[in-house]
Amino acid sequence: MSSHDPAELAAARPDFAAIAAWIPQGASVLDLGCGDGSLLRYLKNTRKVRGYGVEISDANIVACIRNGVNVIQSNLESGLSGFESNAFDFVLLSQTLQATRHTEPLVQEMLRVGREGIVSFPNFGYWKARLDVLRGNMPVSEELPYQWYDTPNVHLCTLHDFEDLCNNHRVHILERRVMTGDGEIHLLPNLLGSMAVYRFKRAV
Predict the structure, then answer these.
(1) CB 94 within 8 A of CB 15
(2) Which pLDDT does position 130 carry in this prediction?
(3) CA distances, 39 to each of 85, 103, 134, 167 (Å)
(4) What is the pLDDT of residue 111?
(5) Mean pLDDT by 10 residues, the chain (204 residues)
(6) In-domain check, residue 25
(7) DSSP 118-166
(8) Residues paired with 184 in a beta bridge
(9) Beta 28-32 vs 50-55: how paired, if at all?
(10) What is the distance between the alpha carbons of residues 166 and 162, in angstroms, rounded to a whole number?
């Protein structure tokens, strides 16, 4: 994603605006699996955040630098041991949760390094995904654009699955937004929502 215009970025990625709505001006942010740095650039433009991205891809590191984003090259699967506890106000995992192999430890590390965590992910419980599976095929959509044989996604989940993970691992969900396109879904969100965004913290 090469556009630097906040409105264009928000239109292309509705979860960006949902994430930004929860982040106060000037907050410190760590964006895990930050890709080309588009989310951090969006947050710098709209919320004046300070922070870093973490990314493993050489090409994305170069793109982050071009986007004016501070980036650290590291593998998320190795953990976040290089970061001190409570070093950031927010730790973000945008459209990357489903591609992580060690999901539960990573969520716990997010809440060690940050006071709050925010994740967004495609909802595998969305009715179109369910219909594809009923027809005998793995879903391919705007939110899940890969074929089964070349997908980076290893842990697809539904809203219920993620909430069960949080309940079972002392993670307190603060807010949730469920969307299809740029519209928010309130009725039957696990069936009618194609993407979810959650804000959470460690349960006391």
Answers:
(1) yes
(2) 94
(3) 23, 21, 34, 28
(4) 96
(5) 61 87 97 95 95 94 94 88 94 92 92 97 95 92 85 89 96 97 94 97 91
(6) yes
(7) EEEEEBTTSHHHHHHHHTTS---SSSS-S-TTT------B-HHHHHHHH
(8) 179
(9) parallel
(10) 6
Does residue 167 lie within any of the structural domains? Answer: yes
Domains in the chain, number: 1
Q: Report the C-alpha gap between 92 and 33 in whole angstroms.
A: 9
In a domain, 1, yes or no: no
Cβ proximity of 62 and 89 under 8 Å: no
Rounded (10°) angle between helices 159-168 and 103-113: 60
Q: What is the pLDDT of residue 4?
A: 59
The neighbour count for residue 58, using CB atoms within 10 Å, is 9
pLDDT of residue 145: 85
Q: 58 in a domain, yes or no?
A: yes
**175 is written with which tokens?**
């807010």
φ and ψ of 27, to 5 deg: -70, 155
Residue 143 Cα distances to 110, 128, 177, angstroms: 23, 11, 16
Q: What is the pLDDT of residue 43?
A: 96
Q: Domain range for residue 144?
A: 6-202
CATH, residue 158: 3.40.50.150
**Are residues 77 and 105 in contact, defined by beta-carbon separation less than 8 angstroms?**
no
